[in-house]
Design goal:
The complex is a heterodimer of chains A (307) and B (623). Chain A has 307 residues and is mostly helical. Chain A contains 13 helices and no strands. Chain B has 623 residues and is an alpha+beta fold. The chains are: A mainly alpha (307), B alpha+beta (623).
Chain lengths: 307, 623
């Protein structure tokens, strides 16, 4: 700090440039994304679901999950008062469906983030370090890849205590291998480019190369993968809850289906207990898939010809 | 990740319209096929699982696994019910009023000192291999249970007080007792053929499921068994009380209750009991179904909330981690006073249960006991809060009650993940007790046995089927039933050990006068109620259903309003009369499947439209 080097000025230049570049690429991304009609439909559906989930405390409130002061009689069919009927406690199923979206979306998102984070970490390090480290890591990945995911998740959820965290963990640690494989392949491709060699020659360490050069280049892939992973995570959450491995006191779509089955709604034909959660799960999973496919084809030029 | 279908060689958009139409048509056709595929199983006549042509088969849907087919080891309801069918017991219960009536024994009397019992064994009961069933078989069965620890696993409590068992003649059995025992006319022990069982080596490992048919003398002979598949029995035509009307009895496994109900609707099974009973929704929908009768009768079970009294072993060693605050009787009473039993009956059981009072259900009027108004723990949350305040568990600023260690109280409630009622009541408990300022963690497990035996719970959902003789369900709360050491397994239900209760238990066991004994049993129930370790919430009904076009009549027990599955005796299956013509009428009410089909059709059509639009978009892009 002896001489007044105008540090802010030199710092702001590249930063502003970088921001401009980012803005431009975002605009370009959106312009490209807009041409994918299915992606737009998915995005609209997702926005709707997110709004419903976020405003649930205002629209239905947490009281809707209360059994003691349930407003209706158990297993009422749809009526003006209860558009989707009532469940076995006499709770309003429409309210439960709205309230359950919070858990299903939250678990889906967190599990997908966890899964993709593990996958990206494994993939980037395996692609970067190569050698015996990569071999060992990839064999572990292969092992997870050939293990039936659901069986592994059920085993985990059974052993650990029943809570949302357990479900997130069970889904997250069982579904990462595909991401790891994808990211490793992309890392290998990026690392063979000449500028990585230049960075190394300029003294860039492992951490610098992985975080500054490889990660930004695999990020689009990771993002697309995360979006696609959400739908499978939501399905996995519903599956686990349906098999009775979720937290029984938390309202979720899969949990609603499980309750309906236990109450005998399937054989008694109480469709209003079964169909709405099922359609909701399918719709959200579809919306995430549509968005993921669109993002994937925008970011990956080789897929861009047709979606 | 699956790769999207890449369109190649599609015609251009000029031919778009017909193609879209064709796609929708294809989707519609696919939907129709799906519907047809779903519908076809409904159309043909229900298939009877018959072993031979013309045999009348009674098929019963069950879910409970068989623990063992050896009468020395089995303790589950299904296995013991099957033993009732395979082997005669010394005595049986009258289906009309549950009084003791002759079984293998025709007469019995006790000596004046109450210590010697003499049974006269009937001479018209033969084993299925042609040999006569004699007093020698009975004596061998009891002696084996007295000398071989492995053989005492299931029914050892009956013979613990036996001094000596002899068979002076083929028709005379003499049992000498150490102390008087009131259960001598209710010895629920299957008598096995000595000539067959002598050859068995280690009785603690022999499951009686190796060679079929199994030799027996009950109304049915066990002919085949596949674990969690089926249990097959054929009628014993030479049964002394008369041959059963059905030729074969088949217990077939349906692990999913809804699947069992669907099988009943289709006529694949004749009878469904549910585990433990049909749900209110299932019962309501089956009531409207054609050719199906729903039997809704007072059950023999109680449904209770057990409180951990601080688990300990007979050697005095304490174990487990039950919350210390539960040792205070006021806390236990307060918890139960915050439980709205009426809501449990109305909402969870939807009327298919009776509100809980004493320990023994009203199904057994001679032993049924009600708390007096002064001792009754009526639903009163305000008073419950008061009791907790008195006991020194006060609320902190955020409304949580603090334990003696200064931390908020949270009780772990052990619940059966397989029982929907546990989870539903658990949800209510969580809300009721949170109003008291007490937290609840619901531990719903498939296997509750491990934490239970280790004493690692605060409260637990509990329930037992009560026999006409209440000795067993009373014995599981005595100090004698505690495990010998923390590592052992005792017969105890909930680690209760109370001196006053124990002395009453000993008195009732030695009392031969039925009225006097009933009075003592009621005192025991009163004591149990006051202790607050076993809080009976409800007596669930037995809700079961059968096809009237396959079963013309079947005997319930008690005959007025009684259950069919899990009776104290073989009356239901032995008395069942097949319907004249084999049930071939089709069911009309498979709404669930039809609705499922419609949903599938909607999805298929939707997918068809979706893909049609996708392809159109692709085609447009190509232009």
């Amino acid at each position: 700090m002896t001489t007044g080097i105008p540090a802010p000025a030199t710092g702001a230049g590249p930063r502003r440039l970088a921001w401009q570049r980012r803005r431009r690429s975002a605009v370009r991304f959106w312009a490209e994304y807009r041409t994918h009609r299915a992606g737009l439909v998915g995005l609209a559906a997702l926005t709707l679901f997110a709004l419903v989930a976020l405003t649930a405390p205002l629209t239905v409130g947490s009281d809707v999950a209360g059994a003691t002061d349930a407003p209706g009689q158990p297993m009422e069919s749809p009526s003006g008062e209860f558009p989707l009927g009532t469940d076995r406690f006499g709770r309003d199923l429409l309210g439960l469906l709205v309230w359950g979206s919070r858990v299903s979306l939250l678990v889906g998102l967190l599990a997908a983030v966890l899964s993709v984070a593990i996958g990206a970490l494994v993939g980037v390090t395996a692609g970067h370090f190569k050698g015996w480290y990569a071999t060992v890591l990839m064999r572990v990945t292969d092992w997870f890849l050939v293990m039936p995911t659901l069986v592994l998740a059920i085993a985990l959820a059974t052993v650990l205590s029943r809570s949302l965290g357990t479900v997130i963990l069970a889904i997250g640690v069982t579904s990462w291998p595909t991401t790891a494989r994808l990211v490793r392949a992309q890392t290998l491709a990026v690392e063979s480019r000449p500028y990585i060699e230049r960075a190394k020659a300029l003294g860039g360490g492992h951490g610098h190369i992985m975080s500054r050069h490889v990660l930004p280049n695999v990020m689009p892939l990771v993002l697309a993968q995360a979006t696609l992973m959400v739908s499978s995570a939501i399905l996995a959450e519903a599956t686990l809850a349906f098999l009775g491995l979720g937290d029984p006191t938390v309202v979720s779509w899969g949990g609603l289906l499980q309750e309906a089955r236990e109450a005998g709604a399937v054989s008694s034909g109480d469709w209003w207990y079964l169909v709405p959660p099922g359609i909701a799960i399918a719709a959200v999973a579809l919306a995430f898939t549509l968005c993921g496919r669109a993002v994937e084809s925008v970011l990956n030029p080789r897929l861009g010809v047709d979606r | 990740m699956s790769t999207p279908v890449h369109g190649s060689g599609f015609p251009s958009s000029r031919r778009l319209r017909p193609r879209v139409a064709r796609l929708v048509a294809v989707a519609g056709a696919a939907a129709l096929t799906t519907l047809a595929g779903l519908a076809t199983p409904l159309n043909p006549a229900p298939q009877q699982a018959s072993a031979a042509d013309g045999d009348k088969v009674l098929t019963v849907a069950v879910a409970q696994s068989v623990d063992s087919l050896s009468p020395f080891l089995a303790s589950r309801l299904l296995s013991t019910s099957i033993h009732r069918l395979m082997y005669e017991y010394l005595t049986n219960y009258d289906p009309t009023n549950a009084r003791t009536i002759p079984g293998l024994a025709t007469k019995w009397q006790s000596s004046s000192d109450k210590l010697t019992w003499t049974y006269t064994i009937r001479s018209n009961s033969k084993w299925s291999d042609g040999q006569q069933a004699t007093a020698e078989d009975a004596a061998w069965t009891f002696n084996t249970m007295m000398t071989d620890e492995g053989a005492a696993t299931a029914n050892g409590s009956f013979v613990a007080n036996f001094e000596k068992v002899t068979a002076p003649s083929p028709t005379k059995l003499v049992i000498k007792l150490k102390k008087p025992q009131a259960t001598m006319t209710a010895l629920d022990v299957p008598i096995v053929p000595k000539h067959q069982w002598e050859k068995v080596g280690d009785l603690s490992k022999f499951n009686n499921d190796k060679s079929f048919p199994v030799v027996g003398n009950g109304p049915f002979i066990l002919t085949d068994y596949k674990p969690d598949g089926y249990v097959r029995l054929k009628a014993n035509k030479s049964f002394w009380r008369g041959a059963p009307k059905f030729d074969e009895l088949l217990f077939r496994y349906y692990k999913d209750q809804d699947a069992a109900v669907a099988a009943l609707r289709k006529g694949e099974v004749s009878f469904v009991a549910g585990s433990p009973s049909l749900t209110p929704a299932q019962a309501a929908s089956l009531k409207n179904a054609e050719n199906i009768h729903v039997n809704d009768a007072p059950g023999r079970r109680f449904y209770a909330l057990a409180t951990n009294p601080g688990a300990k072993a007979k050697n005095g060693q304490k174990f487990g981690d039950g919350d210390p605050s539960l040792l205070d009787e006021r806390v236990r009473h307060a918890l139960f006073m915050a439980v709205d039993r009426k809501a449990v009956i109305d909402k969870v059981f939807q009327g298919h249960a009776v509100e809980g009072q004493g320990y023994i259900p009203p199904r057994f009027p001679q032993y049924f006991w009600k708390p007096s108004p002064s001792q009754e723990l009526t639903y009163d949350p305000a008073k419950a809060a008061q009791l907790l305040d008195q006991a020194g568990y006060r609320k902190n600023s955020s409304g949580k009650r603090l334990g003696k260690d200064g931390k908020p109280i949270t009780y772990r409630v052990l619940c059966h993940a397989t029982d929907p009622n546990d989870k539903a009541v658990g949800q209510y408990l969580t809300e009721w007790w949170s109003k008291l300022g007490i937290g609840v963690t619901l531990d719903c497990l498939d296997n509750v046995t491990d934490p239970w035996l280790a004493g690692n719970y605060d409260l637990a959902f509990d329930g037992w089927s009560v026999n006409p003789d209440p000795d067993f369900v009373l014995s599981i709360h005595t100090c004698a039933a505690l495990p010998a050491t923390p590592k052992d397994t005792g017969a105890t239900d909930n680690f209760i050990c109370d001196k006053q209760y124990d002395s009453l238990y000993a008195r009732q066991l030695a009392e031969y006068d039925p009225a006097e004994r009933a009075t003592i049993v009621k005192q025991m129930e009163s004591r149990l109620y006051d202790l607050g370790y076993m809080n009976v919430m409800a007596y669930p009904n037995a809700v079961e259903a059968y096809r009237t076009d396959q079963i013309k009549s079947i005997r319930t027990m008690p005959s007025a309003a009684g259950n069919i599955y899990g009776q104290d005796g073989y009356w239901s299956w032995w008395s069942a009369v097949p319907a004249a013509s084999d049930g071939s009428s089709d069911d009309s009410g498979s709404t669930g499947i039809v609705i499922g089909g419609i949903v599938a059709a909607v999805v298929v059509v939707g997918a068809g439209v979706f893909f049609a639009m996708r392809r159109r978009a692709t085609a447009e892009d190509r232009e």
